[in-house]
Amino acid sequence: MPIDATRPYDPDNIFARILRGEIACDRVYEDDHALAFRDIAPQAPQHILVIPKGAFVSWDDFSARASEAEIAGFVRAVGTVARAAGLVAPGYRLLANVGPQAGQEVPHLHVHLFGGKPLGPMLASR
Ligand code: 5GP
């Protein structure tokens, strides 16, 4: 069910619980600012989610409220994860859904990192 990205942060959302270690994940990377783990329902051979450690609902919330250090740390983590997965040469796609029309389901900012095959057109339908 898509979420309303303008609502306050819900500390019990599934990714907050993963960050607290209450729910397991297939972790691929972690540092002070970010955690990366494999999507539970992958839509490409490589489908990794990268999330900031801070409590941010969406890209909108993050870009408005995060500190410079949090933003730099998160952006660098996304690049680090893609490089470590060997996706720079073949290419990859980043996606961040924000709010209902984009179909955001988890109200904690996450960037999808897709790769491992030709990814086709940017949107399935227009
Ligand atoms: P959104 O639609 O919010 O951009 O994407 C949410 C993503 O989170 C989906 O691709 C979904 O498969 C993934 N997801 C939802 N719950 C879990 C979970 O408990 N563990 C993992 N690893 N991924 C999840």
3D architecture notes:
This protein is α+β, with helices and mostly antiparallel strands and 126 residues long. It has one domain: HIT family, subunit A (2-Layer Sandwich). 24% of the residues lie in helices and 20% in strands. It is built from three helices and five strands. It has helices at 14-19, 59-65, 68-84; strands at residues 27-30, 34-38, 46-52, 92-95, 111-115. It has a five-stranded antiparallel β-sheet, with helices on one face. β2 and β3 (46-52) form a beta hairpin. It is globular, with a radius of gyration of 14 Å. The chain starts with 13 loop residues before the first helix and ends in an 11-residue tail after the last strand. The relative contact order is 0.24. The model has no long low-confidence stretch (mean pLDDT 96). Guanosine-5'-monophosphate (5GP) is lined by residues 14, 23, 25, 37, 39-41, 97, 103-106.
Key phrases:
single chain, 5 strands, 24% helix, binds guanosine-5'-monophosphate, alpha+beta, 126 residues
